[in-house]
Amino acid sequence: MKIIITGANRGIGLSLTNLYLKQGHQVYAICRSDNNLLSLNNDNLEIINNCDVCDEQNIQKIADYFSDIKIDLLINNAGILRDETLGALNVKSINDQFQTNALAPLLVTQSLLDSMIDQTTLSKVVFITSRMGSITDNTSGGRYGYRMSKVALNIAAKSMSVDLKANNVAVAIIHPGLVGTDMIGGQGNLTPDEAAQKINKRIEGLTLDNTGTFWYSNGDVLPW
Length: 224
Ligand SMILES: NC(=O)c1ccc[n+]([C@@H]2O[C@H](COP(=O)([O-])OP(=O)(O)OC[C@H]3O[C@@H](n4cnc5c(N)ncnc54)[C@H](OP(=O)(O)O)[C@@H]3O)[C@@H](O)[C@H]2O)c1
Prior knowledge:
With about 220 residues, this protein is an alpha/beta fold.
């Protein structure tokens, strides 16, 4: 398979990159900095460096790069987590999370549609979301910008699943679990490698029949 992963240089994205390289796939690693990726030294790895997914010119660069390459799987993984306090909400922080976590994955996916749509073979798009974007599951409050951005991501991904079904493109919306990456200070229930394995299981099971599902990486279906 030919696979694109955003935010591939650390955390869950780096583990997914490693996993798919070990499985012998061709991985295109999109990143702002290639520090951890260079040492992987694998012929099946192509690094697209200096690529900020929030920058529209960079998104155009991605579209141009893949104009002649057929992509089987796109994993929109890049994301940020900030915190806000009710009473002192920080507009920039909320905007940054919306831009990175909701708008960027939508625009990156749109820019790659021509490389993914092929009526004869199934392509897959994965959005790495969070259960913090589940309204039903929100019993602890707070995290305004992050929660709002992931809810927005979820609804955009759901629309894509509807719009792209007839084009042979299946969409998964996956919460990885609590994963010990920099994002949460390294403390989690899963290592990034364990999370990558579970995410891969969900991707393997993704079809046009279950497209648009919001999954926990362990296979549970999450409520919106
Ligand atoms: N860890 C968890 O427990 C957890 C739980 C639920 C959901 N998630 C989701 O899982 C995904 C991966 O998170 P993680 O835990 O692996 O976090 P991480 O270790 O902080 O990694 C985040 C990755 O996203 C990249 N990124 C952020 N903004 C970017 C931008 N504008 N352009 C390009 N790349 C950008 C980072 O690149 P730089 O190195 O350049 O900053 C980094 O590679 C995120 O979508 C996150 O919301 C994580």
